[in-house]
Amino acid sequence: MVIDMPSLLKPFRLLLLLVLAMLAAATHAQTSTYEARLPPELFSARDMCAYTDCASVLPGAVRFSERKGSPTFVEGFDSSDRLLGYVMLSSDITDIPAYSGKPIIKLIGMDANGNFTGIRILKHSEPILLLGIPETALNRFNDQYLGKHVGDRIEVGRTRAGEDVIGVDAISGATVTVIVQNQVIMQSGGAVARQTGILEPIVREQRAFVEMGHQPDWETLVTEGSVQSLIVQPEDVGLEPGDTPFIELWFGYLNHPDVGLAVLGDIGWSRLMERIGDDQAIFIIRTAGAESFKGSGFVRGGLYDRIQVRQDVDVFNFYDLDYYNLFGVAAPGAPRFSESGIFVIRGDSFSAAYPWSLVFLGNRIDQATGQRSFANFSADYWLAADYLEGGRAVIKAPDAPWVRIWKVRAVEIGIFIALLIVVSIAYANRDRLTRASTRKNKWPVNAIKYSAWIVSIFFVGFYLMAQPSITQVLTWFHALLLDWRWELFLLDPFIFIFWIFIIVTVFLWGRGLFCGWLCPFGSLSELLYKIGGAIGLKRFQFKLSQRSHDKLKWLKYVVFGVLLAVSAFSLTTAEMLAEVEPFKTTFLVGMFNRAWPYTLFAAGLLALSIFMERPFCKYLCPLGAALAMPTTFRWFGLKRKQECTSCKACAVGCGSLAIDEKGRIDARECMLCLDCMVLYTDDHACPPLAQERKRREKVGLPLTPIGKDGYYIPIKPVPAAGATN
Amino acid sequence: MIMSDTKMTDPTMPTDPMAPPYAEKGFFAVFAAEVWDHLWPWSRHGFRRQTAIQAAGVALALAATLIWIYAAMGRMEAGAIVGWWFGWSVFEVVVRLGSKPYVKEGPWWGRRYRRANLMDMICYVGFKNLLIGAVLFIALKSQGILVL
Fold it and tell me: Which residues in chain A touch residue B78, judged by CB atoms under 8 angstroms apart?
């Protein structure tokens, strides 16, 4: 059935209402902790619990100590003043960024035995939690840790009893966010547990120093790496670029006699060593920039909240008691400085034989919105091997999170890659498949295509949740402009691999191989249409007239353009508007886990798909539009005969309405279903070919094979042997 | 500009075939001419037809160049550059439709060209300028002279 514009408006009116309802819901979606403004004292005041409800994560606690330890935490006591447990602010311990590129700030409670008692989000910047996934889902994720011990090996994914790994369920559609959260919770808990004796503290092997007996000058100290610099430019923190850095710090390790004597001089170093005993000392001097390394937290709580030393998972903060004055640098050639200090690291967790870094904890100001976000800058330090007996310690670096994910999911990754390769090979051999098919029996093509759909829907869509989305395109645009981090994209191996496949195949054959064969939602949509036809609903199935389609198809480009434009101003808003894609509702979160406008929208589109082939793909899909644009320049198109300009046989059967009145295929709209290619070599269905077949049969000529040009190979009369002119 | 144009519809192309004047030259000449085509949207033929647009186009091109120079000097923000990039791209589409209204069909190393309709030109200019913009952005950022 073909429907023209006026009658077409009827079903689309409903669709429009669905879109509007969904957008209205999206616009008003608010969460309590998204970009929440937290009091600055929370991050530095000794009395941390005066600025947040610590009891909410440590039930039963009525009194809390001041911040203590390094990294800091507070103790919680019950009404009889018995130690109940500990409360920590995640940002005091780690600043691992989540999917948004910013950390999620959590308040974490742990009892005196090391069992988690409560985890509360204070602030996050995750767009996915703003709209797509309710914040309660992250709270439920956090609740999985309650009662679990900090010493357990907890990972996102399946429990692996043989490896003593306790699995926690991920949040569909927010895998990266929860993987990072797991790291934050376990690192925070571990850092406090090691300080309080719940876990054995990390004791790093101390190595004796090798004394060279020389006193290097400043330039030598810098050259050999005994003094390092950390320079932060104004633009790094969102300020206008200037002639001087925001802050320029020089720092080094003072315990080694050669370095210590060079920096402090004989008397200064001897006195320092007498005072600090076995503790470790570093010095910091500021040589440029108006900003102090003390920070405002120093005034409020005696905490130097702008500097930290980190060694692997250990974080060392400094209070006023850890500070000694540094009045001058003895090394010849040392620069003039405007601020200085010697900071002491206590305990035996720190070892100069291992690498460490000085971290400057800053804030980046977004000039457009005025919003501040954490921006930390670090410089690495590792005492030269010559200064250590036995050289530097051997480090076995743990796998990066993305490497772990790739290893854990290696089998699924293998299957997924195999799927992509099989489909690509099948499509590359489309000529064989279409020749083996006829208009009445398309199974050689359809068996592969339908199998791809089924695997795509259930394995790729529902199981792997690897549904590509326009939000990824927008994220890439922004990452390209702002901060490209491969590890962020590698955290989801399936999406990463899928996009490589998409980019390659779009330029080879156009968007049709992905959209028409492997997009989970597109496959589900067309499968519903096929099932609808098979169960007797064919008479209700319809497609728009070519004229109407040619007008409506531009809508998806408008949707894409609007999203792209909005993303230039606000990626968050663009991600909200990207709910026009029903992918999240269908595959990632689930129809029944979302607010009714989203469910209604996705269900409405799928219901419409039973009666109309791929309505979303044809008219709304912004991802399809984004891929259609480079499809203009795909290398290999479908075949055509000259007769196609007047023959309408393929055009009539084209479900994508991609063949115009002159028989030309619009690659941007084509889903590469190959129906027209089946006809191309079917000598009972392709009119010019059928005509030639009949002619040959009539005159008794043999039916030669059909050539690449779609015609019978011409019969060339061969002169009889011995014939002469 | 000399262009060949066929009367018979070629169903293997979404629009009618249309060859640029250099289509029949040798490999290196065509390669050089295509590079020039990508970077220079104007043609003498177009100038005669669209004098006002072309004149404004030259002015806009100078302005766009100036923006990139400012950016290279660290005196321009990302938003402004994106804005200019977009504005220039829109203008380039209009200019090209009048002066070089063709795109390549099929393999990029091939020599099949066809008439560009509006959408073809939007796709071409958008894609080309995205690549050029990305290269310039990355280059300026790697030099640390672009404010982001």
Answer: 481-482
8 Å CB contact of B11 and A640: yes
Distance CA B121, CA A400 (A): 44
- Asked if A534 and A670 sit in the same domain, the reply is yes
Q: How many domains does chain A have?
A: 3
Q: Is there a contact between A629 and B77 if contact means CB atoms under 8 Å apart?
A: no
A397 touches chain B (CB under 8 A): no
Residues A184 and A250 in one domain: no
Tens-place pLDDT, residues A638-682: 999 999 999 989 999 999 999 999 999 999 999 999 999 999 999
pTM over 0.90: no
Is there a contact between A481 and B123 if contact means CB atoms under 8 Å apart?
Answer: no
Beta carbons within 8 Å of A682's beta carbon, 6+ residues apart: A437, A438, A439, A689
Nearest chain A Cα distance for residue B128, angstroms = 10
Q: What would the 3-class secondary structure string for A294-321 be?
A: CCHHHHHHCECCCEEEEECCEEECCEHH
Indicate whether A4 belongs to any domain: no
Whether A247 and A203 have beta carbons less than 8 Å apart is answered as: no
Least confident of A425-439, A440-454, A574-588, B79-93: B79-93
**pLDDT (0 to 100) of residue A131:** 56
Compare A339 and A242 and report the one with higher pLDDT: A339
Find the CB nearest A635 among B9, B74, B106: B106
| Structure-token pair, residue A61 | 């606690």
Domain ranges of chain B: 17-142
Structural domain including A627 reads 410-680
ipTM of this predicted structure: 0.84
Any domain includes A713? no
The residue behind tokens 């919680």 is A76
pLDDT in tens, A310-322: 888 777 888 888 8
In a shared domain, residues A427 and A383:
no
Is B87's Cβ below 8 Å from some Cβ in A?
no
